[in-house]
Amino acid sequence: MQIHMFGAALVAAALISLGSAASVTVKAGDTLSSLAARNGTTVTALLRVNPGIRANQLRVGQRLTLPTRPASTPGVTVRAASVRVSAVPPVQGRLTTPFNAQHGGLDLAAPTGTPIRAAMAGFVKSAVFDARNGWGWTVVLEHAGGLTIRYSHNSVNLVRTGQQVATGQVIARVGSTGNSTGPHLDFRVYQAGIPVNPYGLF
Asked: Which helix (H) or strand (E) holds 11?
């Protein structure tokens, strides 16, 4: 897998080419709802770009086209999970693990101490050392519309529970705490508690 830079340049181009068609392969147990949630889209959008498919007739191995989005720049206002948001990259680093069925977020490698910024303005739900789940120093931000964003494996948290933060505010620094194999940010986005593809924010 090619490793992309994830930084202050074009976010969409740094991750994947959102202007090009992408697809997903149906696996055992998949439904349109689970595929939509896993890939940061909706059932309606999947049906729109896959005319003729039936929700109750998915086949293992079947390939479905994913809805595409035009490339965008950091800070542009986009529609994600039916909420108008303005998001910026959380860190300048290398994408080492993408969002997939086994990994519900993005791993972004960067040197220890690299600033981690709030992708969106929000409320600090928690800023703790999470040993039980192996996250290490972690900041969890709550946002409008049921969105929650988790920033994990930090070397230090720079905000406290209950604090309001602004888009782009430095909230932590990259580290390798918890169950981690090297300095990186584990960046996860949840909609109503369900992991969704962070690509949809940018």
From this structure: helix 11-15
